Amino acid sequence: MKINITKLGLRKKSAEVKTTVGVVEKAQNLQIQLLKSDAVDFTNDDPLAVLEAQKKMVQGLLQFMIDIFKLTDQEVEKIKSTLDFTDFQNFMAYVLFRFQGMSDEDWETVTKQQSEESADPKEKQLRLAKLINDLSISQQDMLFFKQQMMKQGILPDELNRQDYFEFMAVLNAKDKKKQVTDPVVELLNKRKGTD
Asked: Which region among 7-11, 126-130, 142-146 has the lowest average model confidence (pLDDT)?
């Protein structure tokens, strides 16, 4: 998957990231961590707990970025010293959504919609709770799937190296008899067979 990294201020404008099952799982774990940190009440919680949650979030984001983009120490230092924190968060949100299968165009649409939505705290909290729940379910589904694959003799490490989207396409592939075909093509094929 090609990801636009121009916002990082590096010489490279894009990066090719292999969407292995392991990388997608890391992305899901990071998303869960981020969503949980969003639930921290920055005004009422203990200041030390808030600071620790923020630090853990930034470290998780940086490590994920280092791992998937294979950044050098120099590149990491450049990003740390030049990239605004809000821009960094927005960039990482973009990357994580790309791992969920969104295109650049989808991302533009989502960010536009979010800027137009109301900032009702209760509505935001409900959306956040739903996102956390959906990601937890997705993570449990992945673990259950790995468990089933182990019963077939496929180890989780073997799955982690596979391209996630291709792997899911293979899993969802249908037998030729169950595939949906164009009725016009079927009619033409039947006519050819009877002539």
From this structure: 126-130
